[in-house]
Amino acid sequence: MDGLRMTAAAFFRHKGKNVVTETEFIMGVSMDLRWVPPTGADGLLAALIDGGHVKKDGEYLRPAFDVSGTDVPLGFRPSADILKSSIPKRPADDIFGKLVGIAGSSGISKKNFIVSVNSLQKRINTDIEVAALMVLRDAGIDISEHIAAVYELIAKR
User: What CATH number corresponds to the domain at position 39?
Assistant: First the structure.
């Protein structure tokens, strides 16, 4: 069976419904299922739509097939190939990557920093870059030179 089809079936079965918003999808595959980072969720969604497994009706997403007729193994996780292809290549001037680097050079482990950022992002429902700035600020790191860049990035979205 097609890996993308199984991925779509697994997601909709996990949600327990056949209609979700794009935000529900992104949060579901990144935060709930932890298949991809939030930045990769858009790519995974695009692959599912392009593959004809998910239909976008306005602001809603629906499976393009009967998910109840698809056998999904317990603990299913999409293959590494599917996940790698959905994660966008980060540009050299990636702001979040810079903030992760600042955390690392300030003595915060990358893992702990990302866990803290994800937790804060989910708790206050904000952009990942804003959450990263807040975690750095709370750690006593001067973030003043990065605020404008994050603001411009978010304003473009």
Answer: 1.10.10
> What is the count of structural domains for the chain?
2
Identify the domain containing residue 52 by its residue range.
3-86
Task: Describe the strand order of the beta sheet including 54-57 as a list of residue ranges.
Answer: 20-21, 60-63, 54-57
CA dist 20 and 22 (Å) reads: 7
Burial 109-123 (b: 16+ CB within 10 A, else e): eeeebbebbbebbee
Q: Which two tokens stand for residue 14?
A: 């996990």
For 17-44, write each residue's pLDDT tens digit: 999 999 999 999 988 999 988 778 888 9
**Cα R_g (the chain), whole angstroms:** 17
Indicate the pTM of the whole model.
0.56
Quote the CA–CA distance of 97 and 137 in Å, as a whole number: 16
